[in-house]
TrEMBL record:
PROSITE patterns, per database record: VOC (PS51819)
Biological classification of the source: Bacteria, Bacillati, Actinomycetota, Actinomycetes, Micromonosporales
InterPro entries the UniProt entry points to: Glyas_Bleomycin-R_OHBP_Dase (IPR029068), Glyas_Fos-R_dOase_dom (IPR004360), VOC_core (IPR037523)
Pfam families reported in the protein's UniProt record: Glyoxalase (PF00903)
UniProt-recorded name of the protein: Glyoxalase-like domain-containing protein
Segments forming domain VOC: 3-107
Amino acid sequence: MINGAHVVIYSRDAEADRAFFRDVLGYPNVDAGGGWLIFKLPPAEVAVHPADSASHELFLMCDDVAATVAELTAKGVEFTQPVSDEGWGLRTVLRLPGGGELGLYEPRHAKAYEL
């Protein structure tokens, strides 16, 4: 039986992105060997959206996007898009130290992880 999910983020600077998840976001982790950190994530959910080609995105969720943006900005995190109202939630995008981007949003929809 499937008992979890493992998310992989590909990075041009894996060490910097690992430090970001460890030090800025404060996610607990295990060392799988040689400094290869694997992070415990908050509760998660998955959605399937229609598209012309297959792709994947990772969004972090929060209860108050304005407060979270302020907290992360104070820690030096760069946001590449202003907060926008998408109807289903308030959304922004942050840049990882390795150059990648992650979505961040405050959902207005029911949260599947609360089931």
